[in-house]
Amino acid sequence: MSLHLHDITLTYPDGDTRLTALDRVTLHVPKGSLTAVVGPSGSGKSSLLAVAATLITPDAGTVTIDGTTTTGMTRGELTTLRRDTIGIVFQQPNLLPSLTAAEQLQVMAQLDGRSATKARSRALQLLDAVGLAAQAKRRPHQLSGGQRQRINIARALMNDPTVLLVDEPTSALDHERGAAIIDLITGLTRQQAAATVLVTHDRTHLTAVDQITEVQDGRLTVPALMR
What GO annotations for molecular function exist for this entry (predicted)? Predict the structure, then answer.
């Protein structure tokens, strides 16, 4: 179980020309490891995450997830691949205000056809894993920002993904809560044996990651193995 991006090039229309967002990017993330992708705004971090999530098809290069290369897949096949193998933690939790913490997670499993009983059992298990078992019946307005982000992470794990993609999870949190969220993601990466990519502009919480890669003008530079 791993994520491999090979020689990825991605461009966008820019008037009469095209703007290069990713320039021959190669990145390998083994299972059970956490890779942090850092860089300033506009450097290509979000584009890299979108390609890894199969939300954008690159101009050139290949994305391989668990040995399956996505080149040539139909839109429906890519949707199934995302649902079955990829968990995405968005920058903002975007929780549904009318649902409890447990129900936020249950919806994800029920969309995948899982029974209500199994969905609730899995939801409660994950809430316990992120330290929110006691908050299962609370709605978003009754939770702190850090607690909402933990639900966001648990929701991404609901269908047992082998690849976890995390977009700026600490941007709206103070230093202490941000550190706790990074610790949680690190622990869950090991526990779930997921290949995790963490996109962030904040380098202060990255002492426990396995690899740091910096994006500059669409290119990956200065990779540094942390262990």
Answer: ATP binding; ATP hydrolysis activity; transmembrane transporter activity
Residue-by-residue DSSP string for 66-85? TTEE-TT--HHHHHHHHHHH
User: What confidence score (pLDDT) does residue 180 get?
Assistant: 86
Check residue 1 and give its pLDDT. 61
Q: How high is the pLDDT of residue 222?
A: 58
Residue with more model confidence, 225 or 199: 199
Report the CATH number of the 2-93+148-225 domain.
Answer: 3.40.50.300
Would you report the helix, strand and coil content of the chain in percent, each value rounded to 5? 35, 30, 35
Question: Quick one: which of 109, 213, 120 has its CA closest to 156?
Answer: 109
Residue-wise pLDDT tens digits, 186-195: 998 998 899 9
CA–CA separation, 156 vs 151, rounded Å? 9
Longest dimension (CA), the chain: 56
The one-letter amino acid at 104: Q
- In angstroms, the CA 129 to CA 6 distance is 33
How buried is 176 (Cβ within 10 angstroms: 0-12 exposed, 13-18 middle, 19+ buried)? exposed
Distance from C-alpha of 9 to C-alpha of 6, rounded to nearest angstrom = 9
Q: Where are the domains of the chain?
A: 2-93+148-225
CA pair distance 6, 132, nearest whole angstrom: 38
pLDDT score for 96 = 94
